[in-house]
Design a protein that fits this description.
The complex is a heterodimer of chains A (327) and B (440).
Chain A (H helix, E strand, L loop, with lengths): L13 H19 L13 E6 L5 H12 L3 E6 L11 H10 L4 E6 L4 H8 L4 E7 L5 H19 L3 H4 L8 E5 L6 H12 L3 E5 L14 E3 L3 H5 L4 E4 L15 H8 L3 H4 L7 E3 L12 H4 L6 H20 L11
Parallel strand pairs in A: 1-2, 1-3, 3-4, 5-6, 5-8, 6-7, 8-9
Chain B lengths: L5 E4 L2 E4 L2 E4 L1 E5 L2 E6 L9 E4 L4 E4 L1 E6 L12 H10 L2 E6 L10 H11 L5 E4 L15 H5 L5 E2 L9 H14 L2 E4 L4 H4 L4 E2 L2 H6 L3 E2 L1 H18 L3 E3 L5 H12 L4 E5 L2 H4 L21 H12 L5 E2 L8 H4 L16 H29 L27 E11 L18 E11 L2 E5 L2 E2 L2
Parallel strand pairs in B: 1-6, 2-7, 8-9, 9-10, 11-12, 12-15, 13-14, 15-16, 16-17
Antiparallel strand pairs in B: 1-4, 2-3, 4-5, 7-18, 18-19, 19-20, 20-21
Helix pairs in contact in B: 4-7, 7-8, 8-10
The chains are: A alpha/beta (327), B alpha/beta (440).
Chain lengths: 327, 440
Amino acid sequence: MKRPQHLLSISDLGTDGIAEVLRVAEAFAEVERRSVRKVPTLRGKAVATLFFEESTRTRLSFETAAKRLSADVLSLAVAGSSVKKGESLRDTVETVEAMGIDAIIIRHGSSGAPHRVAQWATRARVINAGDGWHEHPTQALLDCFTVRQVLAERKGAVPEELGIDCFAGLRVLIVGDIRHSRVARSEVLAYSALGAKVTLVAPGSLLPPSLEGWPVTVAPDFDAALGDADVVSLLRLQAERGSGSYVPSLREYTAGWGLTARRVELLGEDAIVTHPGPMVRGVEIASDVADLPRTVATQQVTNGVAVRMAILFLLLGGEWPGADRHD
Amino acid sequence: MTEVTLVLRGGSVVSPEGVRRVDLAVGGGTVVALAASIDPPRGATVLDARGCLIGPGLVDLHTHLRQPGREEAETVETGARAAALGGYTAVLAMPNTEPAIDCAATAQEVLALGRSAPAEVAVAGAITVGRAGKALAPMGELAGLGVHIFTDDGSGVQDGGLMRRALDYAKGLGVTLAQHCEDESLAGSGAMHEGSWSSRLGLPGIPAVAEEAMVARDIGLVRLTGAPVHFLHLSTAGSVDLVRSAKAEGLPVTAEAAPHHMVLTHAEVAGYDPVFKVNPPLRTDDDVAAVVAGLCDGTIDAVATDHAPHAPESKDVPFDQAPPGMLGLQTSLPIAWQVLSARLGPERLFALMSAQPAAIARLTATDARPAGHSAQGGPIEVGAAANLCVFDPTASTVVDPRRLASRSRNTPYAGRAFVGAVRHTVLRGEPVVVDAVAQR
């Protein structure tokens, strides 16, 4: 597998790349279970997080991952930076790069902002930590990672033994505000690259205007689709982006597309429920459902660190004892 | 007899009747002789036109010169120089300046700046005060200065009742309203064409119907009022169909299309480079084919550049934050040649880029033109104003944004090669471009 220069989209990785990320992340997850949870892999490297949008888990997760790899971490808090004085994204990036940064981890409200940064950066690797409605690749990777972990656990196997074969034919149902969801776009690409069968279910107004070229089917009815799902991926209604006006009311949204206690009964016994967080209990997921063992949101957060360690490792080319060098 | 100051030798003159190999002599700003061979008198400038087509100077119905207000992006002078290099001898300056051209003072300022420019500069006036879509601008006062086209371009007049009133008023004045067709309630915050690419890229889209709804509304208003409407930059197959049937019905409508809508599609946005952001947006292959078909069958009357300079820093941002618009004056003829010449031949191609736009803007020999303006749009005959575009259909050029005359660099064609290049441009008998170099 060829190491991508940047991680802007899941499509930068391809099936082999995703498999490699999952494999490397598994090894880092093992590091997470040690008493000294730190490796010298990226010692002397510096990464910067540039978050132009609010975030709790993604930013903490990336910064934790970088620190576990012994990288230096610079964190640009936009609120206290020159961005507020009118500095452009380009100048901000050039300034950060001038400080010898090896990787820029960016979250931005504009779709494609990481692509622009990658065009401007001269040597830093760029990692997309969520851009507008476009993609959130590391979220999709950690979702796949978590699903494989659960499947392995049930079989009493180590996840790595499952490879990516466990995704072949896996029925993934993505529910909710697909139109405005960067998680959905990355999940569609990642799950389908791994061989899963992806189905979308959403209010008509929250589906993308065109699904031409998407390897998905659209289910007309949430209730009917539940029985056929091995994985249900719930998405948050992006109310802060005005998605509220795409449905008559939150009440009607929950009635039609919320994972309520009644709907959970329609799920197969082994079905897994994922949620990228932050959850809005009572809207897309009932509070009781959020706390069920099949809902793996907390496990997803835990796995986020190992997956992001793997991404940093693969992009920054750190030494990996025992790993095959493919490039 | 007028003294001959300029002779073009070895070229072929394009006129509505066809293309014929003749030398051309100019004196006193007009064409004084067309003959198989002309011996230049002493002191006359001689331009080599061997292998070139000599057409009437091009006329652009849709140029954003940005002055006043955005001089960091373009000025009347730099825009006119880009026009001359593109083979244009006249441009119609759009009124979405800051302040807008919605009164005599601003119109006079731009007209005055244009007097020393290397292409003639006519101005379009705004339909509404400040292009705000609320109250009618003083169209009569502007018409008195020779302004014939009125538009709120940059946006369309959203209020149908106000547009109707503007048409009634314009009809009385004998002027033409030009519409940027975009229903803002349908376009929303769209940054590109709504379709497969916008869905994949996670960018808000502008559906084709945002344009078509206003084209349809305005055709209805033309039918109601009898006032003419010129449709700016048609970009969708549906719009072309609507205009085609309006013309079949005999309604007084005209239309233009931009070169980028003849060659580029929404797939260009894949890399999120705002140089491909334009309004109306780049659309689908089917739309491109429909626009070209409309140009070929007479539905669309003119190729118009929608030359829209933006300073580099304003395009050096994420896609959704960039202003829409692309440079066009220096690339339009090679693109039109590439797309249309095989189907239309040089006569009809020059008609789309010179005679027909000149007629729409009332800049021809038989029109009451703005003070100081020569007759545009040809035909090239003895006694006609010597506004000429000398085009070498075999020369090839590679577009280098830094070498364009515009103050801005937002061409979507950086690095692309085109066959065909403007070699000389003659304005009122003066060679303002010689061998692709601006003379002033």
